[in-house]
Design brief:
Helix content: 40-55%
Shape: globular
CATH superfamily of the largest domain: tm_1862 like domain
CATH topology of the largest domain: pyruvate-formate lyase- activating enzyme
Radius of gyration: 24 Å
Distance between the termini: 48 Å
Largest sheet: 9 strands, mixed
Number of domains: 3
Number of strands: 18
Structural class: alpha/beta
């Protein structure tokens, strides 16, 4: 699809993002040259107004629309009007109206909360409904999430930070996954060396945080699958954090024990003896057929056994991740998964809508989705929301990814008092995140600025150029010198 934008070059990005809501797998180009195109945006200026025009011709369908704008309207408002025209035309063309309207951002609840603070709740909802074309269902979700996020956000400040530690290894690669992670079979020899460098980076971060006067609020060890490490490696990593970071103000310490096939009693006991007070055990589905389809090397029973083992060891704050829209799943199977999860009664459940990232095996193999998949995913997401509410799970954070079925969202649900604090802090960009390990991203937060420092993506790069990476880490000290 080719879009010609004769309005403002700055609008190119928004036009591409809006078109991609409807055609996630098509090649979409936006140019500013007057050449043959599927969609053309132009304008006519009159004495007191500007007329925005859109002409769409795609696969035999033609739609022409226009909107009158005052000359005093800001470029942002002109861009919004043009995006609305494009959204409405493509909704007619495809028969699909994305429920988040023209919103393409990752953090809808954050935007909603900012609008509530700016104009009040009623006006914020009208803005979402009439200006952004967000459905009432998603407005209500944003309102619920924002009300819970607000109190969590208020629990911290810019003198505090969270620590993220990346373990980019998995027992196998799931077909839907696009994260930079390596199977243990292909990267086992790298793990000891990787852990050695990771500990060096943690020591540098600890010293830097102390010098900046930052207080640690949450720790999150993710991946990948951290429990691919051996018990001894886990113990070394957790001991390093306990002995080198001030944990007096710590509210939450999470370890992702994501894959049930990496969990045993020895690893759980190692994790439990440290300051960890929250873990994730993630089945994604409790259908053995679907697990096989997506390349998960475990069964539903293995998940249940791992969950009960964690309870036996003493973990009283467990999260479980599920994915709506997996290949081979259906609403009956998804409902059965929800039922079994709720009977186990974890403290939180995160429901992801399937995102078909370009680097995932699903996308590489060309397994694209159709309207049936979108409808199933939307039905599953609604079912999860209603079903989990009956068991006292409330939505507390949400975020969106590109190429998600039906342009839907990921939602964290939790029982009261068990919300994942780190999840809110990173989604809202509430305070600084100091990150260690391959593919980790440090986010430095001041009152007026967010600065990102990127680690190398792959473990072999991280090891090979570790000294270069540690030079980058000096930017943390420079940032706090400048902002304080």
């Amino acid at each position: 699809m080719k879009i010609v934008n004769l309005l403002n070059k700055k609008f190119n990005y928004e036009f591409e993002k809006t078109a991609r809501l409807f055609f996630p797998f098509d090649r979409i180009t936006v140019t500013n040259s007057e050449e043959e195109a599927d969609i053309v945006f132009s304008e006519e200026k009159e004495e007191e107004k500007t007329i925005l025009k859109m002409a769409l011709s795609y696969l035999g369908s033609s739609i022409v629309d226009k909107v009158i704008a005052n000359k005093t309207e800001s470029p942002n408002e002109i861009e919004r009007n043009a995006a609305v025209m494009l959204y409405k035309a493509l909704s007619v063309l495809t028969g699909f109206s994305p429920p988040w309207g023209i919103l393409t951002g990752v953090r809808p609840a954050r935007l909603y909360l900012s609008k509530v603070r700016e104009m009040g709740k009623e006006n914020a909802q009208e803005y979402f409904r009439n200006k952004l074309l967000v459905s009432d269902e998603k407005i209500n979700l944003s309102d619920e999430v924002a009300s819970r996020e607000e109190s969590i956000i208020a629990s911290t400040n810019l003198t505090e930070y969270s620590l993220y530690v990346s373990i980019p290894f998995c027992p196998s690669r799931c077909s839907y996954c696009s994260f930079v992670s390596h199977s243990v079979e292909s990267a086992k020899k790298l793990i000891p060396q990787y852990i050695g460098y990771l500990i060096k980076e943690l020591l540098i971060i600890s010293k830097t945080a102390d010098e900046a006067g930052l207080k640690l609020k949450t720790v999150y060890i993710g991946g990948g699958t951290p429990t691919t490490l051996s018990p001894a490696e886990l113990d070394l990593l957790l001991t390093t954090i306990e002995e080198n970071f001030d944990l007096d103000n710590l509210l939450e310490f999470t370890v992702e024990a994501g894959r049930p096939d990496t969990i045993d009693i020895e690893k759980l006991k190692v994790i439990k003896k440290h300051r960890v007070n929250r873990i994730s055990i993630n089945p994604q589905t409790l259908s053995d057929k679907v697990l096989k389809n997506i390349g998960r090397r475990h069964t539903a029973k293995q998940f249940t056994d791992a969950f009960l083992l964690a309870r036996e060891v003493g973990f009283d704050n467990i999260n479980c991740d599920l994915i709506a829209g997996l290949p081979g799943d259906d609403i009956e199977s998804f409902s059965n998964t929800l039922s079994k999860i709720c009977r186990l009664s974890p403290e939180s459940v995160t429901v992801h809508a399937l995102s078909q990232k370009r680097a995932s095996d699903i996308s590489i193999k060309g397994e694209k989705t159709d309207n049936f998949d979108k409808a199933f995913c939307e039905q599953a997401v609604k079912l999860a929301r209603n079903y989990l509410a009956k068991y006292s799970f409330l939505p507390y954070y949400t975020y969106r990814q590109s190429k998600t079925l039906g342009n839907l969202e990921n939602v964290g649900y939790a029982k009261r008092g068990y919300e994942g604090l780190y999840n809110v802090f990173i989604m809202d960009e509430t305070h600084t995140i100091l990150a260690a390990g391959a593919s980790a991203v440090t986010k430095l937060k001041s009152k007026d600025e967010i600065k990102r420092i990127f680690n190398y993506k792959y473990p072999y790069e991280y090891i090979k150029d570790f000294s270069v990476l540690m030079e980058r880490k000096k930017e943390i000290k420079d940032f706090y010198k400048k902002t304080r």
